[in-house]
Amino acid sequence: MVELKTESELAVMREAGRVVARALHTVRDAARPGVSLLELDTIAAQVILDAGAVSSFLNYHPRFAPTPFPGVICASVNDVIVHGIPDGYRLRDGDLVSIDCGACLDGFHGDSAISFTIGPPTEADATLIKHANEALDAAIDTARAGGRLGDVSAAVGRIGRAAGYGIPQGFGGHGVGRRMHEEPSVPNEGQPNRGFPLRPGLVIAIEPMFMAGGHDHFTTDPDGWALRTSDGSRAAHVEHTVAVTESGPVVLTAP
Ligand code: MG
Ligand code: MG
Predict the structure, then answer these.
(1) Beta bridge partners of 74
(2) Contact status, residue 94 vs residue 117, Cβ threshold 8 Å
(3) How far is the CA of 240 from the centre of ligand 1 (A)?
(4) Rounded to the nearest whole angstrom, what is the distance from the C-alpha of residue 69 to the centroid of ligand 2?
(5) From the CA of 153, how far away is ligand 2's center (Å)?
(6) What's the average model confidence in pLDDT over 186-211?
(7) Residues with CB under 5 A from ligand 1 (ion)
(8) Is the pLDDT of residue 64 over 90?
């Protein structure tokens, strides 16, 4: 069932979103060669703790995973698309990093992700990240009352496919609220004018995932979490939690 949020609930969700934005900003600032993914996880955990919030990710245990998630961020490097478990890997110049973070404040979640490189990007990485962000922006712009969920999905897919990227099937955005993952699911491809009607109070996470190699195939690591491109090409993932309101889309996880 899709739960529409009241204005006061959206105000709480905006605060949860701010905490996530702060955590991502702090992690990005700290990410440089030699810093480990576990160190980034600790940094994000401290921001969430200082805000009086709780990690949405730590110990999260969806049906597809064999074990609860052990971190407060997903740290997905290079050919890892999403759900990378933060470990002792130390960042190197040129790595393409996606950091995904969620926090729960006063009972409501925020969920957001950024992609960036360590040091200057190659042209291919810069373009991949740019297209992922453009897809996110275009999809956010369709999140308007009177539209349909297919408009959001179509906006993501159109930009990814036009650029020749692969899109992992079965993973994408979702409703957000008292649970991090709620109905409806928000695929990264779809048909405009189809699907769930967008109404004020609907809150969705929109999260383009693009694979540079152009294939849709991916594998799951033995840890049961990290999704990796089958061809070894790099992937970018960006995400915002967005509310549909009477006055247009509101990005709840904006800084
Ligand atoms: Mg996320
Ligand atoms: Mg999400």
Answers:
(1) 100
(2) yes
(3) 8
(4) 14
(5) 14
(6) 98
(7) 100, 111, 113, 239
(8) no
**Amino acid present at 9:** E
Length of the chain measured in residues: 255
Cβ proximity of 129 and 116 under 8 Å: yes
Domains along the chain?
7-251 (3.90.230.10)
Q: What is the pLDDT of residue 254?
A: 98
Distance from Cα 99 to the centre of ligand 1, integer Å: 8
Taken in order 42, 30, 54, 80, is the CA torsion positive or negative? negative
Give me the pLDDT at residue 192, please. Answer: 98
How high is the pLDDT of residue 196? 96
Compute the distance between CA of residue 226 and CA of residue 65 in angstroms, rounded to an integer: 10
Per the structure block, which two tokens stand in for 135? 């897809």
Q: Of the candidates 129, 133, 240, which has an alpha carbon nearest to the alpha carbon of residue 186? A: 240
Place of tokens 């993501």: 156
Centroid of ligand 1 to alpha carbon of 54 (angstroms): 15
pTM of the model: 0.98
- In this model, does residue 54 exceed pLDDT 90? yes
Residues 112-142 pLDDT 10s = 999 999 999 999 999 999 999 999 999 999 9
CA 146: distance to chain centroid?
Answer: 25
CA 53 to each of CA 56, 176, 184, 226: distance values in angstroms, whole numbers, following the listed order: 9, 16, 25, 25
